[in-house]
Please model this.
Amino acid sequence: MSGNEPVDDAREGAPEPAKDAGPAKDAAPPEGAAGGAGQAPDASELMVKAEQVHKSFGRLEVLKGIDLNVRPGEVMCVIGPSGSGKSTFLRCVNHLEKIDAGRLWVNGHLVGYREKGGRLYELRDREVSAQRREIGMVFQRFNLFPHMTALENVMEAPCGVKRQPKAQVRERALKLLDRVGLADKVHGYPAQLSGGQQQRVAIARALAMEPALMLFDEPTSALDPELVGDVLEVMKQLALDGMTMVVVTHEIGFAREVGDSLVFMDGGRVLEEGRPREVLANPRHPRTRDFLSKVL
Amino acid sequence: MTDLSKSGEPERARPEAIKAVPVRHPGRWVATVVLLVLAAMFVHMLVTNKAFDWSFIVDNAFRPNIVEGVRTTVLLTVFAMVIGILLGAVLAVMRLSPNPLVSGTSWLYTWFFRAAPRLVLAILFGNMAILYAKVEFGLPFDAQLADLLGVDIDGTLFSINTRTFLTGFMAGLLALALSEAAYMAEIVRAGIMSVDPGQSEAAAALGMSRLRIMRRVVLPQAMRVIIPPTGNETIAMLKDTSLVAFVPVTNELFFRLQAVGNRTFHPFPMLVAAVGWYVAITSVLLVGQYFIERHFARGAAGQGDARQRGRLRVRGIGFGGGGGGAS
Ligand SMILES: Nc1ncnc2c1ncn2[C@@H]1O[C@H](COP(=O)(O)OP(=O)(O)OP(=O)(O)O)[C@@H](O)[C@H]1O
Ligand SMILES: [Mg+2]
Model:
């Protein structure tokens, strides 16, 4: 479903740092430039477009040029060994980390910057926050606010950030909690909920902001095995409702069944990308084959 | 293997409850007796020793001017702590700012006011009127600029006479509050740092602003760490208010009690009365602390049942092991 250009793993050409002006080709593409030809769709038609994204922590280069396209409505699953940069990439998409080079668009907006006259300008905190409202994120460790009940957790951002009327938010929050199967736990504090229940509250909390894109960073890997199913079921329903999702996961079954595309990352690069069944059945890259033989 | 616990259970009879002879603790009995005897001796001494002069204490510890002293002391404590906590919170947030100028300013403040003894500060602020007769608010360096340009401008917006502003009470309050802010800054900073960074991250991912994250997510959780040492600070402050006698502030509790003692040539009973008053006020403060702590314990693991707590602990260990590469 996603960009079908063959992925070559040797990408030596380091692009220019993000601070400098890019060449004309990636500066504010005009509407309809790429058309429906299916080749290199431009950022305005994609939910996420990553172009040669680089990220280093000190001298450790964690992302070495990530190119990824996520179409609206697509569910992209990302797998790869520990330390390959999966979490870092998700955090870049949400601008929790600044990228060093390359370009990243979400929903047609350049993440963290404004491009004007061939130069990049950093966005103010307020503008970054506004961008993040379009993106929901679910963390491995849930990160619910422990001093608020499940309902308060879900209501906090819509009430406080979007300033929506409380009664309306409350009604929607109750519906969301019901949708994730927690209608009877709305007044429980996180410490009184099981891990699986906490993670479902966290999903409801992210959905309450009505995001266009949901990011999941190993949402089930901190859970007891018998609790994983409930969370995956909620995510599957979400996918069926048409939500655009990027899911870092080791749940190969979920990737096969729900994913539209599967990405294999290793050492800060995308080594393989394609339809989940195809990648899983006959991986082209030896590293993918190696990794899958260990996980499956 | 898993069948053992589940299906095997109903068939077997429940064993009878354990009735064992408890371990004897002869040491406890000896200690109890010794303590009781000591307590009895102490009470006996309190009642029979003429130096205490209980009727004199009761007659004098509630005079109107003493009660006024209590009022001043409590007001000083409350105001100094309120200013100290608010300023301390601001300093703590400044200290954690990525801007080196802002965090440096906070560090400098904390460094100075923790180094300067409160007693010295109190005397210094009491004598501030000698150093600065007037406090003026207006454009900085206006007189110098006017000289330089050869024009006549007055950048003063308003000015107050230091003597009318820095009354004894205000000088004492300022000394205590500014000093307290330095200690509170460190306490609040420790509280903020005790909150899992994942909390701010999750809040940021929801699009919350930095100020809002601090106010709604981080500080409420930091409170659980902040409150107990703040209780300590408040109690220490209650007793440190007696330092303002050197400003001098003469309507404060300890000064008043001593004055009565000196006037009547019965200083010792008035010292006992002072201890009594401070103990009483501290006890009231402790009750307040109990309720504040309970309020901020909302949702804490301890509030749930024991089973939940156990599960949480196990999960915590799981994170410790697996969280190495995760961010
Ligand atoms: N804030 C940071 N500072 C320094 N190094 C970091 C930071 N965050 C991540 N790293 C490093 O970047 C590398 C990639 O980390 P990342 O969390 O993206 O991996 P991952 O693919 O998500 O792995 P896992 O499957 O274990 O979650 C790791 O080597 C990690 O140590
Ligand atoms: Mg990770």
